[in-house]
Design goal:
About 30% of the residues lie in helices and about 20% in strands. By secondary structure, the chain is α/β, with parallel strands linked by helices. The chain binds adenosine monophosphate (AMP) and magnesium ion (MG).
C-alpha cells in the first residue's frame, strides 16, 4: 500500500483533513496527531477496519482500544448510561487528555473492547484530531501509533518508518503537546479508579472533591494472574531494546552518585534533568528537561533516540511519583522492565 503523507505543521488544510476523513469512512487507516501522542485511527464502528489497526501495530487482540469522539451528542449512542461523576468529569476535562470507561451499547463492536462489555471513550482537544473526527462523522478508534511494546510516537519522524506502507494516510501535525497517553479512569461505587495515569492527575480529581483509587499495578509489577481493570497493564510497553535502568531518590546527590556508579563500568547514556547535566561531565548525557511537563513531552522521543546509540546501558533519572510525575514514572518503570532502583 502507498501511504499518502500530509504535512499540516505550518497550516491546517481542511481539504486534506476531509480527504483523510473520507478514507476513514471507507475503512482505511489514518495516522494523526492528538494532544497526547500520535494515534493510529480507523472507523470505530467497522470491525474490519479496526482489525487492520491491531494488525498494523501487532497488538494483542484482548488489549482494547479507545474510541475518540468530537461531539458529546454521540456519547449516548455508544454507551448505556453516563453517571453523575462521569458527567462532571466530562464537563471539566473534555475535550482533553481524559479517557473514561463506560458500559457499551451493542453498536460498539467487540473487537474494539477486546470482548469486554465496557468501552473507553475520549474527546481529544487537538484541532486536527477534532476536524478528522467531525468530517468523518464517526467515532475513531485510535491506539497510540507505535508498534506494540515500543515507545509511543510524539513526533511523526519517530514513527514514519514503522508505519510507512502500512497505513493509508499520515498527517504530520508537529510535536504533540503533552507527550504521554491519556489518563484512563473508571468510576466504581463512587470512586474514580485511575487505570492509567496521565496529564489529568489524581490531585486534579481530589481538588474537585472526588475519592480516587490508583490501581496498584501502575507502579508495581503484574504477576500474570491477578484480575486487572485495564488489560493494557499485562503487556510489555515503551521498551527500548537496550538494557535500561531507572534510578530515583528524593535526595538529588544520592541519585546522581548512584547514576555515576552504574555508568562508570558501562558504555552508558544518562537521561537526566537539565539541571543535573553538568554533574555528569565525562559521561554521555541526554537532557530530558526540567519541569514535569518538559520531561513528559520529551521522554518517548528521547527513549527512541537513546536506543539508537548502541550503548550497553541506558540510565534514567526518575522523578517524584506525584502529580504528572506518577504518569512519567509509570511509563519509565515499564520502559525499564521494572529495573528500578529507589534509594531512600
Ligand atoms: P492505547 O490504545 O495505547 O492508548 O492504550 C489504551 C489503554 O486503554 C490500554 O491500557 C487499555 O487497557 C485501556 N482500555 C481501553 N479500553 C478499556 C476498557 N474497556 N476497560 C479498561 N481499560 C481499557
Ligand atoms: Mg499504547
Amino acid at each position: 500500500m502507498e501511504t499518502k503523507y500530509f504535512d499540516l505543521r505550518e497550516k491546517i488544510d481542511d481539504e486534506k483533513i476531509k480527504e483523510a476523513a473520507e478514507a476513514i469512512k471507507e475503512g482505511k487507516l489514518v495516522l494523526f496527531p492528538t494532544e497526547t501522542v500520535y494515534g493510529l485511527g480507523a472507523n470505530g464502528l467497522d470491525e474490519n477496519a479496526v482489525k487492520k489497526i491491531y494488525a498494523a501495530k501487532g497488538r494483542a487482540s484482548d488489549n482494547p482500544l479507545i474510541l475518540h469522539i468530537a461531539d458529546i451528542k454521540i456519547l449516548d449512542k455508544l454507551v448505556k448510561s453516563v453517571g453523575d461523576i462521569e458527567s462532571k468529569l466530562i464537563e471539566k476535562f473534555w475535550p482533553g487528555p481524559l479517557t473514561i470507561i463506560f458500559e457499551k451499547k451493542e453498536i460498539v463492536p467487540n473487537v474494539i473492547t477486546g470482548g469486554l462489555n465496557t468501552v473507553a471513550i475520549r474527546m481529544p482537544e487537538n484541532l486536527i484530531a477534532r476536524k478528522l473526527i467531525r468530517y468523518s462523522n464517526l467515532p475513531i478508534a485510535a491506539p497510540s501509533a507505535n508498534i506494540s511494546g515500543k515507545p509511543s510516537g510524539t513526533v511523526l519522524e519517530d514513527i514514519k518508518e514503522e508505519f510507512d506502507g502500512k497505513v493509508d494516510y499520515m498527517i504530520n501535525g508537529g510535536k504533540v503537546n503533552i507527550g504521554l497517553e491519556s489518563t484512563v479512569i473508571r468510576v466504581v461505587d463512587g470512586i474514580i479508579h485511575i487505570l492509567r495515569p496521565g496529564k489529568i492527575t489524581k490531585e486534579n480529581f481530589e481538588d474537585l472533591g472526588f475519592d480516587v483509587a490508583i490501581e496498584k499495578q501502575i507502579l508495581g509489577e503484574y504477576d500474570g494472574k491477578e484480575k486487572v481493570m485495564s488489560p493494557g497493564i499485562k503487556y510489555k510497553h515503551y521498551a527500548p531494546n537496550t538494557k535500561s535502568v531507572l534510578i530515583y531518590s528524593k535526595n538529588n546527590e544520592k541519585m546522581v552518585d548512584k547514576v555515576k556508579e552504574l555508568a562508570k563500568n558501562e558504555n552508558a547514556v544518562i537521561l537526566c534533568k537539565t539541571s543535573n547535566e553538568n554533574r555528569y561531565s565525562g559521561f554521555d548525557v541526554i537532557s530530558m528537561g526540567d519541569t514535569l511537563e518538559e520531561i513528559s513531552s520529551n521522554i518517548f522521543t528521547i527513549l527512541r533516540k537513546s536506543d539508537k546509540l548502541n550503548k550497553s546501558l541506558i540510565i534514567i533519572e526518575g522523578v517524584k511519583e506525584e502529580g504528572l510525575g506518577l504518569a512519567i514514572m509509570n511509563r519509565l518503570i515499564r520502559a525499564t522492565a521494572h529495573n528500578y532502583i529507589k534509594i531512600i
